[in-house]
Amino acid sequence: MKLTVNTFVTLDGVMQGPGAPDEDPSGGFDRGGWLVPLEDEDMGRIIDTWYAEADELLLGRATFEMMRAYWPQVTDPDNPIAAALNARPKHVVSTTLREPGWAHTSVISADVVAAVAALKERPGRELQVHGSWQLVRTLHDAGLVDRYRLLVFPVVVGHGKRLFAEGAAPSGFQVVAGEVTGGGLVHLVLAPGGMSTGEFVVEDGREVARVSEPT
Known about the structure:
- The two termini are 25 Å apart.
- By secondary structure, the chain is α/β, with parallel strands linked by helices.
- The chain has helices at 41-52, 61-70, 80-87, 112-120, 133-141, and strands at residues 2-10, 54-60, 90-93, 105-108, 126-130, 147-153, 172-180, 186-193, 198-203, 206-211.
- Helices cover 22% and strands 30% of the residues.
- The radius of gyration is 19 Å and the shape is globular.
């Protein structure tokens, strides 16, 4: 399976508490709910296409517990997000959780990188990560992410849990697909790869770019 990261981010890279003011106040975060006023008609369509590709799901403990409290209540068979989350295999990364309390869930408690690499060897389409900021950072640094799907919202919140930490493994990205929604959200599908560097020089009176091979 391909490992995909699917998340909402602000312009300053924060992915914490998008859906409610008190969704995740950890670390003193008091600016939750920034997504809701910016939701538009295209957003639901885009998110539905994300979940339609999921064969299994991989979540950090905090994201898992927030989803577990909400999505089992949604029993509408025509809701593609609830259908995926409630019925498909889920894996939660935690050293403290013993009883997941959500059907079709297993716990990864040790050697996350090796466990996720083994999951990727299973047949299927996508092993999807949603939210789960610490887990995403670990997977990025280990080079395990095949695709990032980001919905970027035109807002700056100033502080919070960011998608990429200072010191993250350097990476270049290829834009596989992208669109701007009617309300101004930017949907990006990115494939990580090697990172190039370069310089601008003058040759025969013209400015040209010299770019190195990706490393």
